[in-house]
Amino acid sequence: MKKYKSYLESLVTNRKNKTIESFKSSQKILTLDETVDFIKENCKEFLKYPVKIKRGIYNDNDYLYIEPVERHSLENLDFYNLIIDNDPSWEGYPKRLKSLCCILKGKPNLGNKFYYVIPVDGSKWGLCTGSDLFVSFNYLEKNTNNLYINEFFDILNIIISDNYLEYICDKCNGTGKNDLGEECEYCQNGTIDFQFNMKLDDTNYDIFKKQLDKIDSILNKNPRFRTTFMTELFKFYYIYDNDTLFNMIIDLMNPIKNNFKIQTLKKLYNSSKYRKEIWTESPCILIYDEVSEDIFNKLNIQIRE
User: Fold this and answer.
1) Hey, how many other C-beta atoms are within 10 angstroms of the C-beta on 271?
2) Are 29 and 63 in contact (CB under 8 A)?
3) Which of 81, 133, 174, 305 is at 20 to 30 A from 95, Cα to Cα?
4) Domain boundaries defined on the chain
5) Phi, psi of 177 (to 5 degrees)
6) pTM here?
7) Rounded-to-integer distance, Cα 127 and Cα 219, Å
8) Burial 85-104, CB ≥16 within 10 A → b, else e
């Protein structure tokens, strides 16, 4: 576990710094008048459906124009984002790894300032079932002993990169002796220790799938080893029915089973959902909430809470 945690901390810290710098470089500072003019010209949908969308950021400016740029999870690896962006089951959703993540009708958690988010016309949004993506995979939680999505992938990686798995030897059926009563040459006292010693790739969907297929090929050589692995990963909460590891993960993350939605701005405006994470690939205007009244008065709109 120590190897994986050290690897995770180093990689995430490096990506976090790059994400923060990339996000800063994507911002353009605007004046109040420039912001009003831009919204009137490019955000007509928002003027018709002024829904409360907010985001917290570390910034000292009041008005910003932002285009989503490549981003990474600030505290975890990107396996769930990789699957959302590439698997056919998530077709039509905005890309997570190039998006602006926000809160619908609620208060953000991060940042020294909170901003209203106003998308350009034609925006498309992914809607989570919870206030954070991590707590939105209810189907996965139900089938994995209440693990959040980031915890699930942490456990998977720890098993594959660090842990030794002990399973019963099928040559001697766990007795430690062969047919002649001698010590079994394939095990030690009836059990075998195995270590994958692999690090899964969270940057390339095809490589990630091939790595899981390789793990499956190893597991399928010994049913007892596969049972040991699945017990360690799922605690038998999930009925895997000898399916591939990749297909199981895709099923656990299925957006329909986890009640994710693709939404337009109009649907968000009419939604009864409160404090849900949403994300979009569309460019947006950000307005510091403490000066927002000036602009909303100029635009003659009232934000729907």
Assistant:
1) 17
2) yes
3) 305
4) 2-75+90-132+260-299, 138-252
5) -125, 145
6) 0.85
7) 36
8) bbbeebeebbbbbebbbbbb
How many other CB atoms are there within 10 angstroms of residue 287's CB atom?
24
Q: Is the pLDDT of residue 19 over 90?
A: no
Q: Fill in the DSSP letter of residue 115.
A: E
Task: Tell me the pLDDT band of 241, cut-offs 50, 70 and 90.
Answer: low
* CA nearest neighbour of 160 among 101, 77, 92, 49: 77
From CA 235, how far away is CA 263, in angstroms rounded? 35
Residue 65 has pLDDT above 80, yes or no: yes
**Average pLDDT score, the chain:** 86
Report the alpha-carbon distance of residue 161 to residue 1 in Å, rounded: 8
State the Cα–Cα distance between residues 207 and 205, nearest whole angstrom.
6
- Here the tokens at position 16 are 């976090």
Which residue bears the tokens 């019963």?
168
DSSP 217: H
Q: Which two tokens stand for residue 274?
A: 């409160």
